[in-house]
């Protein structure tokens, strides 16, 4: 399966979650919790995009026999550090714990998508 197809499907799942978080932010009294989820999940989507782009370049480099660079772990770690710094700067507006949970959203979506696709391919 193409990386682009995987990314497109997983991006749709994350946008669905983000829309639910926005509704939670607008209609509940837990604005800081949902702001943390929105902020963390948005950065998680950015990290997923970086990973998909790097994986695409990685595959092209392997096929062409070129030297392969890293998959961008440092940039994804820097994004996580940025999220924590911003959440700590504004603790009254953005909940730190839910920001970190939001950062993990893309990885949870990847795992759930893998299990769903493997279950569907067995049928």
Protein model, in words:
It is built from 5 helices and no strands. The longest helix is centred in the middle third of the chain and has 34 residues, at 31-64. It is mostly helical and 123 residues long. Helix 3 (73-89) runs antiparallel to helix 4 (96-103).
Tag the structure with descriptive keywords.
123 residues; flat; mainly alpha
Short description:
By secondary structure, the chain is an all-alpha fold. The chain is built from 5 helices and no strands.
Number of helices: 5
How far is it from the N-terminal to the C-terminal residue, by CA?
A: 17 Å
Strand content: under 5%
* Oligomeric category: single chain
User: What's the overall average pLDDT, rounded?
Assistant: 91
Inertia-based shape: flat
Q: Name the helicity range.
A: over 70%
